[in-house]
């Protein structure tokens, strides 16, 4: 009996050490690799450890139209891989019930380094970001609780949540953390520009000349290696009279922020047309022409643009050659980011 | 057989310790019960009242966060309930009773925050009472709606005669969370009944006339004014001894 007593004590002691650990470490850890020479990510990975299962769940959610009211409009509807996770061809994004949103869907890449989201920076954490399109009436038009209910009653999702987080509980935090895990893995760092930096590729003459011009005339705002300084600036676009989008001012309510929008990344810029926060420009040549000639000077126009940007036609051509080196074709075709192999909408289950 | 009994006993004790952890020390039960009032009378949803400025109104929804509850003894010792957030919802009577296990037997002051600290505003998606699914979070301009009052008033200039006050903001200059300090005299409290007087929402340091200000939907000046007003809503109604 004494033996049994001792064994029980030992077993309980071991048990006490194991329980907290197994609760913490669910899933297969995935290491987030910071490309050489890049800054420290802004995202706090300690609060949301990347796992194979979490990423898989996030990917499933990203491609699932049931996150929207109409059961069809998924995150991927406006964030298409072939367009660097922007929307090909649409100036303004299209929401449920045949509605326009008020802005152009931004391309998605390297989100681990971004602190604020939306062109006006209104969202202050990557995990919070999906709640905005999900609930906006002109985007996915859903109610968070209703989305969670759809996931809870699904035949597959509770199992995916258990694999990712240790139990079948479905809540907003788990849903958005899984989405973040998937989004965080979308690192675009394998363009010709990156290969040049790593010494794996030599720029041809136009690319090299374009890079020189870029470093003289564009890099104050489009800072390498992310090609944005993450700041809000008025780049001299006219106010669109229907949308009346004053950008950052909507968030800060400061007149000094009127018409300021976050400097977008230029990575994969060749495939993420149309351009500007409302997609008003269809080609990169239009964009360069804007900086050369069309900047509107107002009280908040960025000080770096008050004299516009002098560019000869020759220089524009060279800059384009450089911008094309920012296209990361391995990112655009990476099967890890494509629609998951399992059918994302479980029609079979719904019929029963 | 005695040792078998011992094993069962130790196992039970162990499981209890694992399950309750630190809270095992907190042995006194105290209840905070919130009573929404219009002056001296209890609020009834959808009934008509008149503000002290003569505006007629009815309330359809009233919700607010309570957090950082602290108990102070006469000699200044503090016990704080950390990382515990409560969403008080006028439409859900069970939400209006906060039951706590505390270690402090005798306290003379109760302190809490109406609102949510900035750390939770900037810390991503939270769970429980702070889950954004509770409809108390601005998804387009991140931050909690710390208090929400909705209703109707013929004096409102908004569509359908709606009155809509969504009060939020967590930055240093626009923080609408307010610390509420209430003195309680007797020792050994088991139930503290707190009056929450909605008249003070309108009538306080910053008078809110419905005809002028029938909605507030972002952080900023008006939210700060309402916050200064609601900081005065709370008072002790009664205290029950065990």
Protein architecture, described:
The complex is a heterodimer of chains A (352) and B (242). Chain A contains 14 helices and four strands. By secondary structure, chain A is mainly α. In chain A, β1 and β2 form a beta hairpin. The longest helix of chain A is centred in the N-terminal third of the chain and has 23 residues, at 2-24. Chain A is globular. Chain B is an alpha+beta fold. Helices cover 16% and strands 38% of the residues of chain B. Chain B contains four helices and 15 strands. Chain B is globular.
**On the 0-100 scale, what is the average pLDDT of chain A?**
92
Spans of chain B of at least 5 consecutive residues whose pLDDT stays below 50 are: 19-23
Distance between the termini of chain A: 56 Å
Number of helices of chain A: 14
Give the total of beta strands of chain B.
Answer: 15
Percent of residues in helices of chain B: 10-25%
Could you list some keywords that capture this structure?
heterodimer; A: 352 residues; mainly alpha; two-stranded antiparallel ribbon; disordered C terminus; B: 242 residues; alpha+beta; ten-stranded mixed sheet; 4 helices; 15 strands; 16% helix; globular
What's this model, at a glance?
The complex is a heterodimer of chains A (352) and B (242). Chain A has 352 residues and is mainly alpha-helical.
Write the layout of secondary structure elements.
The complex is a heterodimer of chains A (352) and B (242).
Chain A (H helix, E strand, L loop, with lengths): L1 H23 L27 H11 L12 H4 L15 E2 L3 E2 L30 H5 L8 H9 L4 H9 L6 H13 L7 H6 L7 H13 L14 E2 L15 H4 L8 E2 L21 H11 L18 H12 L4 H5 L13 H5 L1
Antiparallel strand pairs in A: 1-2, 3-4
Helix pairs in contact in A: 2-6, 2-7, 9-12
Chain B lengths: L1 H19 L7 E11 L2 E2 L6 E2 L5 E17 L5 E3 L4 E5 L7 E6 L6 E6 L3 H5 L14 E2 L4 E10 L9 E7 L9 E6 L7 E7 L1 H4 L12 E2 L4 H10 L3 E7 L2
Parallel strand pairs in B: 1-13, 11-14
Antiparallel strand pairs in B: 1-2, 1-7, 3-4, 4-5, 4-6, 4-8, 4-10, 8-12, 9-10, 10-11, 13-15
């Amino acid at each position: 009996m004494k033996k049994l007593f001792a064994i029980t004590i030992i077993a309980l002691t071991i048990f006490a050490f194991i329980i907290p650990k197994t609760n913490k470490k669910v899933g297969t850890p995935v290491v987030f690799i910071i490309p050489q020479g890049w800054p420290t990510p802004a995202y706090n990975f300690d609060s949301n450890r990347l796992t194979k299962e979490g990423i898989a769940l996030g990917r499933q959610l990203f491609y699932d139209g049931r996150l929207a009211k109409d059961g069809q409009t998924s995150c991927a509807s406006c964030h298409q891989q072939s367009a660097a996770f922007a929307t090909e061809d649409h100036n303004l994004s299209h929401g449920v019930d045949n509605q326009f949103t008020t802005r152009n869907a931004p391309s998605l890449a390297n989100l681990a380094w971004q602190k604020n989201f939306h062109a006006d920076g209104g969202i202050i954490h990557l995990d919070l970001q999906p709640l905005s399109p999900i609930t906006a009436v002109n985007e996915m038009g859903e109610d968070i609780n209703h989305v969670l209910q759809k996931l809870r009653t699904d035949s597959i999702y509770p199992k995916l949540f258990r694999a990712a987080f240790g139990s079948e509980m479905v809540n907003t935090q788990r849903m958005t953390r899984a989405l973040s895990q998937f989004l965080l893995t979308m690192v675009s760092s394998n363009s010709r520009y990156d290969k040049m930096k790593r010494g794996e590729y030599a720029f041809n003459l136009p690319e090299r000349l374009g890079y020189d011009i870029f470093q003289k005339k564009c890099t104050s705002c489009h800072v390498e290696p992310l090609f944005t300084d993450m700041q809000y600036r008025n780049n001299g676009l006219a106010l669109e009279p229907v949308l009346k989008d004053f950008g950052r001012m909507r968030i800060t309510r400061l007149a000094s922020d009127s018409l300021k929008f976050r400097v977008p990344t230029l990575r994969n810029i060749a495939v993420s047309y149309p351009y500007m926060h409302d997609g008003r420009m269809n080609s990169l040549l239009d964009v360069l022409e804007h900086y050369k000639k069309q900047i509107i000077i107002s009280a908040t126009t960025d000080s770096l643009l008050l004299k516009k940007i002098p560019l000869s036609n020759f220089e524009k051509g060279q800059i384009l050659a450089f911008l094309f080196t920012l296209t990361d074709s391995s990112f655009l075709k990476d099967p890890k980011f494509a629609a998951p192999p399992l059918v994302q909408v479980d029609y079979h289950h719904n019929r029963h | 057989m005695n040792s078998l009994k011992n094993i069962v006993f130790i196992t039970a004790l162990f499981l209890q310790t694992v399950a309750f952890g630190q809270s095992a020390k907190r042995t006194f039960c105290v209840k905070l019960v919130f009573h929404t009032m219009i002056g001296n009378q209890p609020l009834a949803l959808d009934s008509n009242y008149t503000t002290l400025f003569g505006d007629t109104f009815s309330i359809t929804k009233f919700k607010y966060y309570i957090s950082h509850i602290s108990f102070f003894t006469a000699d200044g010792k503090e016990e704080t309930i950390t990382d515990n957030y409560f969403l008080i919802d006028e439409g859900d009577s069970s939400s209006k009773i906060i039951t706590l296990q505390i270690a402090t037997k005798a306290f003379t002051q109760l302190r809490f925050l109406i609102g949510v600290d900035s750390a939770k505003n900037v810390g991503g998606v939270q769970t429980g009472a702070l889950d954004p699914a509770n409809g108390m979070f601005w998804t387009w301009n991140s931050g909690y709606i710390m208090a929400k009052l909705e209703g109707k008033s013929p004096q409102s200039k908004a569509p359908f005669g709606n009155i809509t006050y969504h009060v939020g903001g967590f930055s240093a200059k626009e923080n609408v969370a307010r610390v509420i300090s209430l003195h309680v005299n007797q020792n050994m409290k088991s139930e503290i009944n707190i009056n929450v007087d909605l008249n003070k929402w309108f009538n306080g340091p910053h008078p809110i006339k419905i005809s002028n200000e029938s909605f507030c939907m972002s952080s900023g000046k008006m939210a700060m004014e309402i916050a200064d007003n609601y900081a005065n809503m709370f008072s002790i109604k009664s205290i029950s001894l065990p």
